[in-house]
Amino acid sequence: MKTHELIDLLASDPMPVQRHAAARRFGLALPLGLLMSLGLLLAGFGLRPDLAEASIQPMFWAKAGFALAMFCGALWVTLRLSRPGQAVAAAWSGLGIPLLLLWGGAAAVLWLASGDERLAMLMGRSWRSCAFSIALLSLPLMGTTFWAVRGLAPTRLRLAGASAGLLAGAAATLVYCLHCPEMDAPFWALWYVLGLSLPTAAGVMAGPRLLRW
């Protein structure tokens, strides 16, 4: 079949686009991925033993708030990149603002801390495992998120893969807050951001293969 014949065939019987297709796909993919990630956390990591006490501390909610802000920003970008012809430029602010606020706050905390406290704030107690734990918890979310994105016909596959990976990582970070004992902003600014970058990088590599439609 020649190209013009294929075009004529497709044009003769166009399939209507389902309304709210993106909302339906992500409305299924994200809760399912979050449940699987939470199950993985409970099975492999467990909740932090002082979660009830920690949950009344402002820094716990600041940590969760950063993860939630990154999740919302990544979802905005991913929704735009999932559909052809959608402008994305303004959506990047949803990711840049939380990062700048975290890094600015972490820099201020380090500036005010004494010299012998700074390294402890950066490394915490779990620096060896934090980023890899977030990446591990993001795996089920990457599966469900990539399924949602692929069904919406993305055209910029590497960029869409990166945003889908970041979305999975942000959701996994939110889940990981239930286990992580770290309460210092400099730690999050380094190790949480590194944990977010791992599924993002995996998404860049996997996007052209897994998001092709």
From TrEMBL:
The chain crosses the membrane at residues 26-47, 59-79, 91-114, 126-147, 159-176, 188-211. It holds the Pfam family NrsF. The keyword Cytoplasm does not apply. Keywords: Membrane, Transmembrane, Transmembrane helix. InterPro entries: NrsF. This is Membrane protein.
